[in-house]
Amino acid sequence: MPVVDGESAARHIKSTTNKNSSTPIIAVSAYCGSDNSASTLFAASLSKPVQKADLLAVMRQLGFKTSTLQDGGHPSTRVVTR
Question: Pairing mode, if any, of strands 65-71 and 44-47?
Fold first, then answer.
């Protein structure tokens, strides 16, 4: 991101007092290092390139309900709720 990095953005989101402060954040990065300080910010992390199946699996582990819908013969994924 050009202005702020993902860790800073996550810190800002978590420091607010609105409904998004408890929203799980999934880190997506090409960097595969393990940073323990960021582990409390992110509910999960994925390495790039992200595969759809991996993202859906992590979202399900976090309690999101997902369903695959057919729209004109093309499969798409919809996140229903958490």
Answer: unpaired
16-22-26-32 Cα dihedral, nearest 10 degrees: 70
φ, ψ dihedrals at 38, nearest 5° = -85, -15
pLDDT band (50, 70, 90) for residue 46? very high
Beta strands 65-71; 74-81: pairing state? antiparallel
Contact status, residue 21 vs residue 15, Cβ threshold 8 Å? yes
Which helix (DSSP H) or strand (DSSP E) does residue 57 occupy? helix 52-61
Which contiguous run of DSSP H or E holds residue 13? helix 6-15
**DSSP at 50:** P
| Confidence label for 78 from pLDDT (cuts 50, 70 and 90) | low
Distance CA 69, CA 77 (A): 6
